[in-house]
């Protein structure tokens, strides 16, 4: 049987919690694991092949991978401009079997690593600012002569990204989708297309509020999608990755530790990743340069090590460990 990528949506309805940071660093973190570490998870010959999908109209993931200048040139000034997720969705919205090659919309080996080098095993399906209008287009569009009795009157509006990714899943080990900070059509498309979802969060009252609601809503969507399409498989929660942790003595400061304890009690201790991303300037400096943290820290740097721990825990959770 042909290898199929594991598809993971990174979601949170609140902005500023590190969705793009986590998405970017999961993909790049996989490239920095040792051969011995990768072999434990079945990657014996090379780093995992990863596709990053930027589904957010803010385009932060595309910018983090390419630089603002290169992304703007490619998406808005190049003649013709590159194809983006917006263009692909439009094709699939209006045609059940569009005559397009998804590979033509993917930027190959474009994610910057260090000193203008790139990661050979990471590709990008970029976003576009007009994705903000795509949700409205999906909402008002009605495909003529749609076979309502097969799937329900509107299920195709949630299946477009699923169909897009199915054409190229055999080319990758992982597909990570950076979702917008809402639960509109594009995010629901991402969840429909995904095997798993991951929730980044900051351990403060405002940022953590609503995590239970996210899980409850995804559970509700799982049931709706399953009832509308018997081919659908439930999207599972991998866990919650905590970000921007302020430490004292290599432990979260007391106020954040108290919030983490509350989260574990309210949700489930298994839902919270043991590893986390600490607050520091290395990731911030790297982001300003459109690099991952490995470009500005050596491999023993604090935040680089935390990214690798998060990546290993991610692999463990989907490879035979905890999936909620």
Percentage beta strand: 5-15%
Helix fraction? 40-55%
The ordered H/E elements are: EHHEHHHEHHHEHEHHEEEHHH
CATH topology category name = Rossmann fold
Can you name the CATH architecture? 3-Layer(aba) Sandwich
**Tally of helical segments:** 14
- List the uncertain runs: 147-151
Distance between the termini: 27 Å
Output mean pLDDT: 91
- Counted beta strands: 8
Largest sheet: 6 strands, parallel
CATH superfamily: P-loop containing nucleotide triphosphate hydrolases
**Biggest sheet strand line-up:** 3-2-4-1-5-6
Q: Multimeric state of these chains?
A: single chain
Total of domains: 1
CATH hierarchy class name: Alpha Beta
Using the alpha-carbon principal axes, give the shape: globular
Protein name: Chromosome partitioning protein
Organism: Anoxybacillus pushchinoensis
Pfam family, one: AAA_31
Task: Write a concise keyword list for the protein shown above.
alpha/beta, about 45% helix, Rossmann fold, globular, about 10% strand, about 325 residues, 8 strands, six-stranded parallel beta sheet, two-stranded antiparallel ribbon
Question: Can you characterise this structure?
Answer:
The chain has 324 residues and is of the alpha/beta class. It has a single domain (6-319), classed as Rossmann fold, CATH 3.40.50. Helices cover 43% and strands 11% of the residues. It contains 14 helices and 8 strands. The protein has helices at residues 19-31, 35-39, 60-66, 68-77, 85-94, 131-140, 148-151, 156-166, 185-193, 205-208, 211-228, 254-266, 281-288, 302-319; strands spanning 6-10, 50-54, 122-125, 174-178, 196-201, 236-242, 247-248, 251-252. A 6-stranded parallel beta sheet has the order 3-2-4-1-5-6, sandwiched between helices. A two-stranded antiparallel ribbon has the order 7-8. Strand 7 (247-248) and strand 8 form a beta hairpin. The longest helix is centred in the last third of the chain and has 18 residues, at 211-228. The radius of gyration is 19 Å and the shape is globular. The two termini are 27 Å apart. The model is unreliable at 147-151 (pLDDT under 50).
């Amino acid at each position: 049987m042909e290898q199929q990528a594991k598809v993971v949506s990174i979601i949170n309805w609140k902005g500023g919690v590190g969705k793009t940071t986590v998405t970017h660093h999961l993909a790049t973190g996989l490239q920095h694991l040792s051969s011995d570490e990768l072999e434990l998870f079945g990657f014996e010959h090379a780093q995992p092949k990863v596709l990053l999908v930027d589904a957010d109209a803010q385009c932060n993931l595309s910018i983090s991978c390419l630089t603002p200048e290169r992304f703007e040139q490619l998406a808005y000034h190049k003649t013709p401009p590159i194809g983006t997720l917006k263009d692909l969705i439009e094709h699939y919205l209006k045609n059940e079997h569009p005559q397009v090659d998804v590979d033509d919309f993917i930027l190959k080996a474009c994610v910057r690593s260090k000193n203008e080098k790139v990661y050979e095993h990471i590709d990008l399906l970029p976003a576009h600012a007009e994705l903000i209008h795509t949700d409205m287009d999906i909402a008002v569009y009605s495909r003529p002569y749609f076979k309502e009795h097969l799937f329900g009157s509107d299920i195709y509006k949630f299946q477009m990204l699923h169909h897009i990714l199915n054409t190229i899943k055999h080319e990758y080990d992982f597909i990570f989708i950076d979702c917008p900070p809402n639960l509109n059509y594009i995010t629901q498309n991402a969840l429909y297309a995904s095997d798993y979802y991951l929730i980044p969060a900051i351990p403060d009252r405002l940022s953590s509020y609503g995590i239970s609601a996210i899980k409850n809503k995804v559970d509700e969507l799982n049931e709706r999608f399953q009832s509308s399409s018997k081919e659908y498989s439930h999207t599972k929660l991998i866990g919650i990755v905590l970000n921007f942790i302020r430490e004292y003595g290599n432990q979260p400061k007391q106020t954040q530790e108290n919030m983490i304890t509350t989260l574990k009690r309210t949700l489930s201790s298994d839902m919270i990743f043991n590893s986390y991303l600490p607050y520091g300037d290395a990731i911030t400096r790297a982001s300003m340069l459109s690099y991952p943290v490995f470009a500005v820290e050596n491999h023993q740097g604090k935040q680089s090590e935390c990214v690798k721990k998060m990546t290993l825990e991610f692999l463990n959770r989907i490879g035979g460990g905890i999936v909620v």
